[in-house]
Amino acid sequence: MTNYDQKISCAKGRLSSIMSCVPYPLDRNINTNRVAKKISKDPEVRSLCGPTISIQILSSFTADYLIDYLVLMFARRGFNASIRAIEFGKIATAILDSGHELHTNPPDLFLIFPTYRDLMYCPALGSNFDDTDAAVKKEVATWNQLWGQLQAPAVQLSFSPPSYRPLADLDGFLPGGLTFHCRNVNLGLSKASKSSIALVDAEHLSHEIGIVNWDDPHTYNLCKQPFSMDALPQVADAVAAVAQGLLGKARKVLVLDLDNTVWGGVIGDDGIDGIQLGPETPEGEAFTHFQQYVEKLRQRGVVLAVCSKNNYEVAEDAFCNHPAMVLNREHIASFVANFKDKPSNLRQISRELNLNLDSFVFVDDSPVERELMKLELPEVLTIEMPQNPALYVQAIERCRVFPMANLTTDDLNRSNSYKLRSQANQVYETATDMESFLKELQATATIECFDESTKDRVVQLIAKTNQFKLNPNQFTPKELEAENRDVLCIRFKDRLQDYGIVVVAVLSIVKDKLIIENWVMSCRVFSRRLECLVFELIVQHALEHGVNEIDLTYIPSTKNSLVYDLLQILGFKKTGLKNHFSNSVQKFKEDVDLLPHHISVVR
Amino acid sequence: MQHDAILHALTVIFQEIFDDDDISLKRETTALDIEEWDSLNQIKIILACEKVFDVHLKPREISAMENIGDMVDHLHTLLSN
């Protein structure tokens, strides 16, 4: 490795550790003060984040404390920002001075931070609505004149009213109220504004942060910053997000998982009648609300893709035919459902849509899938979804991942411009490093006893599972307790989650054969190679009992076709009997070479 | 709260604000001893102290302080009342 390479790999390490402190959404428990400082002092790290951009702040309040946070949030959104010395005081004076450096040496972007204190024409108490209109026109004219002088695009904070309201609740509705004036001015400004000016909705920001923090008289009194120090990260992020949109770098694609993301439950196991979606249950309603939100994003030009670990036909059938689906198949520009790892699938979707991965947002309820995605494709924005689906929309909202500066006809037509894409079981070479990832997960398989505490779950798992199941045989607890039967029952855990009991194999020894009467596995743990470990244990069981052969009956159904592929991989051979498979223990040991599973066994 | 505990809590505040775990405050420490301790960071220090110790620091009281020792003593007085 050259010196240069070494330097870059150290910088990448520092970048990664900084960015882990500012996930999407921001974690209120993580103090970002230090990382803001660190990145502001580290040009090497910043150069890895994206193109350089010079920014000039014009502010009516002290913006000094905001600078480090702006650098951090711009870096997070793909820009290496260098922020110029601030003009504190009259914004207008600087802009109207034609010889000023702003004009002779313009930045790439202006950030303009006025406050309600800059408003000049607030109508007096007792004014009427016509007076209000005239006043708003004057304020808007002032800003239009200022904007006309700028030689670079600008992000400007809208006017938010102070927290005090001398007119009480009428302050927001009556001429003479400052709140009323602020709102009208904002509306006037947004009607007048050019496509090179984007407003940050300060009223919304105030709601999100809480007015106690947004309008903090103590901090303002001390240092002329109107909001508290606690508000700095969110203010910086809100501004950076709008800038990202204005500069045309907003992300474009939303990739959705299906199970427990757009509906409750797992389609492969629960079936189209079993998944939660629609008005009958609170869980179903939460997912309906989420789909409605996603649909609205699509209407304004966000491209939708699906990436699900499911049988393609099963997934597509549910998507197209469930009566409560809000999203339609035509809304999805790329629909991928298979058992490949998701990073490979996203690479495929990126090629198909001809859109870079750095314009992708990944939404998935599974912490494991998210972890792998962040590791393999850090350029994809992975959202840390909360466990409660009722909070899904809010989580995405807080991330500000699809900022919008203007609405164009392109945006409105985007969804239709993608042809329907089908993706059925295509196999692509993957560069994903599954081995290290699986190792890092530190998965364990605990062999549980079949007893009072586990028997209900065992019976339920055998009954409920549809995809990974040899045949329709079910058993009562009493049957499972029979003398010559052994129930292998496994609890699966990894660093991120406890999945509970997810595998059951019902084994019986008959003469010199071990018969796998049934073998089920929850689809929650597909792609973990757990089946490799389970088969190892079954072969071990056969050896312990001195049998020579392992048999099973596999009855194909509409749902369990993947079992057939597994049987081939494990080395089972068809015998002459219908649905019957077998092989000698000897041959299993000699000929079969399974992928390493990196799972440790606990007894 | 004892003087030592206050000094320790102050040290943690400074380490956070300056992102420097090597900062070690003594009673004699002044703004001249810490490179980035300017008027901007002074505000952050004041606000952090108010939060951590749950007190109110008056601006004129703060400007009267010459070193960390003065700060510790002042905080001790406020916390004893």
Describe the overall structure.
The complex is a heterodimer of chains A (603) and B (81). Chain A is of the alpha/beta class and 603 residues long. Chain A has 25 helices and 21 strands. In chain A, the strands form three sheets. In chain A, strands 13, 14, 15, 16, 17, 18, 19, 20 and 21 form a nine-stranded mixed beta sheet that branches. In chain A, strands 1, 2, 3, 4, 5 and 6 form a six-stranded parallel beta sheet that branches. A six-stranded parallel beta sheet of chain A has the order 11-10-7-8-9-12, sandwiched between helices. The two termini of chain A are 45 Å apart. Residues 419-430 of chain A have low confidence and may be disordered. Chain B is mainly alpha-helical and 81 residues long. Chain B has helices at 3-18, 39-53, 59-63, 68-80. The radius of gyration of chain B is 12 Å and the shape is globular. The A-B interface holds A 31, 33-34, 37-38, 64-65, 219, 222-223, 229 and B 16-19, 40, 43-44, 46-47, 59.
Explain the layout of strands and helices.
The complex is a heterodimer of chains A (603) and B (81).
Chain A: H1 3-19, H2 33-40, H3 43-47, E1 52-59, H4 64-76, E2 80-83, E3 87-88, H5 91-96, H6 101-104, E4 109-113, H7 129-149, E5 154-157, H8 178-192, E6 197-200, H9 202-209, H10 211-214, H11 217-223, H12 232-246, E7 253-256, H13 267-274, H14 282-299, E8 303-309, H15 312-321, E9 332-338, H16 342-353, E10 360-363, H17 367-376, E11 381-382, H18 392-399, H19 409-417, E12 422-424, H20 434-440, E13 443-448, H21 452-464, E14 468-469, H22 477-480, E15 485-493, E16 498-510, E17 513-521, H23 530-544, E18 549-553, H24 561-570, E19 573-574, E20 580-584, H25 585-591, E21 599-602
Parallel strand pairs in A: 1-2, 1-3, 1-4, 4-5, 5-6, 7-8, 7-10, 8-9, 9-12, 10-11, 13-21, 17-18
Antiparallel strand pairs in A: 13-15, 14-17, 15-16, 16-17, 18-20, 19-20
Helix pairs in contact in A: 2-4, 4-12, 7-8, 13-15
Chain B: H1 3-18, H2 39-53, H3 59-63, H4 68-80
Helix pairs in contact in B: 1-2, 1-4
